Amino acid sequence: MSDQISTSIAHNSEMPGRSRRNFLKTTGLTALGTMLGMAVPFERNLPVGFVPVALAQDTGHDLMSGKNGLTVLGDRPLNAETPVHLLDDDVTPYERLFVRMNGLVPQTALDQDAEGWVLTIDGEVNTPLELTIDDLKSRFENVTRQLVIECGGNGRAFFQPGTSGNQWTFGAVGCPEWTGVRLADVLKEAGIKESAVYTGHYGNDVHLSGDEEKEVISRGVPIEKAMEGDAIIAWAMNGEPLSALHGFPLRLIVPGYPASASQKYLNRIWIRDKEHDGAKMTGDSYRIPAYPVAPGTEVPEKDMVVLKEMPVKSIITFPQTGAEVKAGEPVEVRGHAWCGKGDVASVKYSLDFGQTWQDAELEPAPNRFAWQRWRAKVTPPQHGYYEVWARAVDQDGIGQPPLSPVWNPRGYANNIQHRIALVAVG
Question: Which residue numbers delimit the Moybdenum cofactor oxidoreductase dimerisation domain (predicted)?
Answer without folding.
Answer: 307-422
